[in-house]
Specification:
The structure is a single chain. It is built from twelve helices and ten strands. It is an alpha/beta fold. The termini are far apart.
Length: 296
Amino acid sequence: MKDDCPLQRQIICVAALFLCVLMPLFAKAKADSSSPAMPERVVALSKSVADMWLLAGGRLSGTTSDALELDGIDGAVSVGTLTTASLEAIVSLKPDLVLLTLDIPLHKKFVGTFRDLGISTYIVNVKYFSDYEKVMRDFTDLTGRKDLFEKNVASVKRDIDAICASSQAQRNRKEKAATYLFLRASATKNKVLKDHFGNEIFVNLGLQSIISDESALDEVSVEAIVRADPAYIFVTSQGNQQKADEAFYRAYASNPAWKNLRAVKDGHVIMLPKDLFNYKPNAQWAKAYEYVLGVL
């Protein structure tokens, strides 16, 4: 009997071949490209990032030396410092995930190397609380700990909203926003901080920076500060505290004009705590807000 439907038979044969041979290959490719639900060997290349991974319920095989003091860090080994992490030490741990940040030049160099070695990376970029919220959502998706997202992010956000509402009530009784200057002191350089999460806190609590967003300045003289005469001067330090204090004194406080500033006269030169304003505060973000509100 003559076959009246040769084309249909060919289509059926091709479809059968696809199902029997090609589909398993596609399934394998998809499985190979997906991250495990819970990475087993994770390395974090900064203290703040390590803290976030731990807050999400993860465990670490390695991290930077300054993060070894964190709660829950048990079993992790040092792979070097934030700026001098050892590639050899990282690779020796056979990580299936490396957490890093492109704020550090060395980390930028590592990204391509890890890609060539087949090591997965997650690039953490946290400038503001909303960034922290996004990263923690991703981390708790990996760990499966939605309860920790509620504890360390959602509840913190509710606390921040309540603090801001309280601050707004206070501002409604004032005629204009108070001004501020935000500085970082270190042994090598005193710098105006514009791209720092602290500014979001100050602005959300009703303050106004004397440095415009368009300004290219990252240093400011005592004379310029005197002209602007901010109501508050916030200072955070980096590196050795004693050397940072000495550098700040030489650059600013030793100048006779410094004592005439409104912020100095009113006792509003605020040395901010490192744990809340040098590193990202993470689950302590609401405490950073509370600290600032308490000095206003």
